[in-house]
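Fold this sequence, please.
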Amino acid sequence: MTQVSLQALIEGAKSGKLVSFPTDTIPALAVKPEKSELIFQAKRRSQTKPLILMGDKADSLWPYIAGSPQELMLWQQTAAKYWPGALTLVLPASAKVPPGMNPLESQRQEGYPTIGVRVPNCDLARKILAQTGPLATTSANISGQPALTTVAEIEAQFSEVLTLLPKELETIISCSGLASTVAKWNQELGWEILRSGAVKLEF
């Protein structure tokens, strides 16, 4: 049994343990960015699939992004319009992003690694993230299998992951079940949609 109180889950995350909590889309599997390898191991996830950095607010995520002042202003305008919400922005990563979050790109000799960033529209998720700092996240499932949507399913598949007690989840509005829309910044073309999801991005 790995169901714990909210504070115990927060402390567990801060100490480097894998945790799971609801978001506005699907439940997240999360860990400190520097411990990203734990997610890849637990999910049996290919290193070609980077993780998403989730934060409680936009300002907590910008230090992980590298761009010109003009680009940053444009990205901030997009974030202000859609966050908190189900939109993941894939942007050039700063040196603050641990290589383990995007292993394949970090090993390349050419080009710059990128990082997907998002602020979820879920009060509980943001409450957790406000205390842990940004976390490396992904869906809670074995790679290639359907996303898990209940604590019972997550516990059955990931016995080592900390989840929340039922009483901590009583005020949660159900996750939408739809993955976030993923948009990547292209210096020449602007936003490119990599995955259609819960949000329709207006150009």
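The mean pLDDT is 91. The first helix runs from residue 6 to 14.
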